[in-house]
Amino acid sequence: MKAKLFFIYQGLQFGLWGAVGLLLPLTSFPWITQRFNIHSVAPAAALPLGLLILVWFLPYTITSVGRLPRQAIPLLVFIFIALLSSLLSITLPLPPFRSPNVWGNIREALLTLGVGVAFYLLTATWFNTSKRIEFLLQTIQIGGIVIILWSFVQAFFWYTQKGYPAWMFAIQSHLTSNGRLFEQRVTGLAFEPSWLAHQLNLLYLPLWLAATLKRWSAFRFRIVGLSVENLCLLAGGAVLFLSFSRVGWLAFLCALAYVILRANLVLIRWLRDQLQKRLHLNLARWVMGQAIPIGMGILLIGIYIGLFFSAGYVLSRLDPRMRDLFRFEFLRTEGLAGYANRLVFAERLVYWQTGYRIFSDYPWLGVGLGNAGYFFPQKMVAFGWALTEVQDLMFRQTFIPNTKSLWVRLLAETGIVGFAVFITWLYVLWVTGRSLSHASSGLQRTLGWALWLGLIALLVEGFSVDTFALPYFWTLFGIATAASTLKPQLSGG
C-alpha cells in the first residue's frame, strides 16, 4: 500500500511539473487575472507551481532533508532587504497619488517577488537527477514549439492579409488577458510582443543555443540529422525577429556576441600557439605572442563596430520607429531626450530618469517594493510631461506607474544595498555557469552555457521589463542551479 501511494505521489509531482513546463508560454492567463484582479502579469504556470508548493515544497522544507542550494543564499538576503525596505517605507512621506491603499500595493509587489522566487527555489531543489531535468527540458521545449507555431500563424495572416480572422482573436482572448493581436508584430502566447521576446531570450533561446553549441539534446530522435533544439533555434530566432522588439533583438545579439567572442579567443590562442611553435628565437616568440592577440583584438573590434552599424542600418529600414537612428544632428539640436523621442524611446528614458531621481533621494534602502510610482508626480523630469504616453499614464490610467526597468526599480525600491545583493546573486550564478561548463556531463555543460546566455540577455532585458513575476529567468537559473548539484559534477579543471 505504501509503495502504491508513493508511486501516485511521485506521479502527481511529475504531472504538475509537466504542466509547469507546458504552461510557461502563457504570461497573462485570463482565469488568473479575472479572479485575482491582476492587471497583466499572471503566468499560468503559477497554478501548478502553487500546488507543488503545497504537495511537495512545504513538506520538503519542514523535514530534515529539506535543504536549499548555496546559490540561493544571496537571494534570501535580498528578500530580507526587500521586506525591510517595504516595512520601513511606512516612515517615508509617500505622496498621496492615485492609490490610498499603500499596503495593498506593497503586498502585491511582494507577491510578484514571491512568485519569481518560488519558481527558482522549487526548480533548484526538486530536480535532483539528470532524468528529472531532462523531463522538464522536454516539456519546456514542447511549450516553445507551440509558441513558434502560433507565432508563425499570426505572421502568415498579417503578411498575407494585413489582418487577422475573428477566430484568432477568439483564441487569443482565452490565452491572454487583453486578447490582442498586434499589427506587423507577432506576440505568440504572451501579453505583448516585448514579453514574447523576453520569454524567448530568458529561457527558450538560451537553452536551444546552448544545446546546439554543445551538441546535446533532450530528445533522442533527429529530423534530417538535426536535433529538436537545432530546429527550434532557427525558428525561435525568426519568431524573435518577427516580434520587432528592439530590446529583444539587442539582448539576443549580445548573447550571440558573447558566443562569437569566446570562439574568437579560442582562435587567437590557437594561432599564437601555432606560430610560436614554428619560431625558434625566444624574442621572436615573445613578440608574436604579444602582437597576435593585440592585432586580432583590434581587427575584431573593427568587425564588431561594422556589424553594429550594419545591424542599425537594417533596423532603421525595417522598423519605422528607428528611421532616424543615424540622424545624429537631432542629438545636437534637440538633445538626448529629443533624439530618444524621435526613436520612440523617450518614454522609457523618462521613466528611468524618474526612478533614478527617487533613488538619489533614498539611496540606501529605497522606498520599498511597489512604492516608486507614488513619487512620479514629484520626480518626473520636465520633458516627460510633454509626452503623450506619459500624459496618459499620469492623468488617465488608474494604476501606479513603474520605472519600466528592473535595474532602475531595484535601485529606487531597494536602494544600493538591495541592488548590490541582487547583483551578487547574479555573479554567484555566473560562477556556477563556469563550473558547469567544465562538467563531464553534456547536460551540465549545456546548462552552464544556457545560464551564461540567460544572464547576458537579462542584463539587456532588465532595461525593458521590471516585474519579478515573469518566471523565465527564474526557471532557467533554477534549472542550472539544480544541475550544479548533480553528482559527479566536475571532471577536473
TrEMBL record:
Membrane-protein topology: Multi-pass membrane protein
Domain O-antigen ligase-related stretches: 232-423
Protein keywords: Ligase, Membrane, Transmembrane, Transmembrane helix
rRNA-binding keyword on record: no
Sequence intervals crossing the membrane: 12-32, 38-60, 72-90, 110-128, 135-159, 195-211, 223-244, 250-271, 292-315, 406-430, 442-463
Main subcellular location of this protein, as a coarse class: membrane
One Pfam family it belongs to: Wzy_C
GO MF term list: ligase activity
Superkingdom of origin: Bacteria
Subcellular location: Membrane
Keyword Acetylation: no
Name this protein carries in UniProt: O-antigen ligase family protein
Biological source species: Thermanaerothrix solaris
